[in-house]
Amino acid sequence: MFEVRILGTGSYAPDNVVKNKDISKLVDTNDEWIVERTGIRERRVSTGEETSMLSVEAARRAIKDAGISPEDIELIIVATATPDNFIPSTACMVQKELEAKNATCFDVSAACTGFIYAVSIATQFIKTGQIKTALVIGAETLSKILNWEDRNTCILFGDGAGAAVLQRSDKQGIISLYTGSDGTGGEHLVLPAVQLNNPYCKSNNDTKNFVSMNGREIFKFATKIVIKCIEEVLKDTPYTLEDIKYIIPHQANAKIIEFVAKKLKVDNSKFYINLDRYGNTSGASIPIALDEVNKKGLLSSGDKIILVGFGGGLTFGAQLIEWS
Ligand code: UT7
User: Fold this and answer.
1) Which atom of ligand 1 is nearest to the CA of 112?
2) Domain residue spans in the chain?
3) What is the CATH number of domain 175-322?
4) Annotated catalytic, 214?
5) Against a cut of 0.85, is the pTM above it?
């Protein structure tokens, strides 16, 4: 088995910044409520760029950071719940734009855990020797599936993309992986796709493609599962939480992160948080945060980090990574 390391990262978000007070013109809410309950102050909202376009820009930055050329990429996975199309996949659209002609391309659907799942898949491809280099992207235009009249959801989400280049390595990189799902909780976070409707259907279905969420249930699930995921990736390794420089969690709600930090008896500062500026960008949130940590120079070779995600499905997972 080969080792796998993160060679480069990139991220991109639309320029349009929408502050809490802007949203209070659309629904009955206010900055104080949103900041107090979530920690979110602003988010980026696309004025025309689709998920594939955000993906391409994040990918270009990751490729530059990694110092590779698009022809080196043998696998492109895009984690997204908000693709431009069902067919072609976002990953194939990215391939075309990058001219990454040697890549196999597909999308992964695992909601906010999508990037974690996609990194796990790419890691297996590299570990087994099938490929050397993969491009993994998490990208969303959640603004197109929000009901902008529903204050329970429209305040939470934002648009953006993050990417990472993974490559075969001689040195330890991705140390351990953990993923899981619980389909019994699927009803708590739903984004309907095209509904069954044909000349033989007994009734027409006019369900809107809006996300709906039982926030309380997701909150309870998140606080439990993030702890489990962290414990699972540390299990059977020589490392403890003390050895971890940063935990980069899915950026859903600062309260979830505070709760987890308290339970694990670690300082909040071990968790990298940028949700105040991006809101919840679902599959894009972890790679955007990872890119910020990288570009700010917060990591040195040998530092250990944990990426941890949770989301609709229900889905969850984590990676323990040695930075190099
Ligand atoms: O990526 C994974 C997906 N999602 C998550 O991780 C979300 C997890 N859950 C959460 O973050 C929180 O549950 C929310 C932020 C979504 C909601 O916070 P909460 O503290 O659970 O509030 P709540 O839904 O229990 O609502 C409390 C009150 C209600 O009013 P009443 O019934 O007490 O009069 C809501 O109608 O707050 C009201 N409310 C709002 N008020 C102002 C709900 N949304 C808003 C709003 N502005 N935007």
Assistant:
1) 1
2) 3-171, 175-322
3) 3.40.47.10
4) no
5) yes
